Amino acid sequence: MSQLNETALGEQLIAFRHELHRFPELSNQEFETTARLRQQLEQHQIRIVDLPLKTGLVAEVGPVQGPLIVLRSDIDALPIEEQSDVAFRSERPGVMHACGHDFHASAALGAAILLKQQEATLPGRVRILFQAAEETGQGAPDVIATGALQEAVAIFGIHNDPSLPPGVVGSKAGALTAAVDRFDIRITGTGSHAAKPHQGNDPIVIAAQIVSAAQTLISRNAPSADNAVVSITQLHSGSTWNVIPDSAWLEGTVRTFSQSTRERLEQRFREIVLGLGAAFAAEVEFNWHAGPPAVVNDAHWADFALQQATASGLEARVVEASPIGEDFAFYQQQLPGAFVMIGTGEPYALHHPAFRINDAVLLPTSRYLAQLAVAALRSLEQA
Ligand code: NI
Question: pTM to 2 decimals?
Answer without folding.
Answer: 0.92
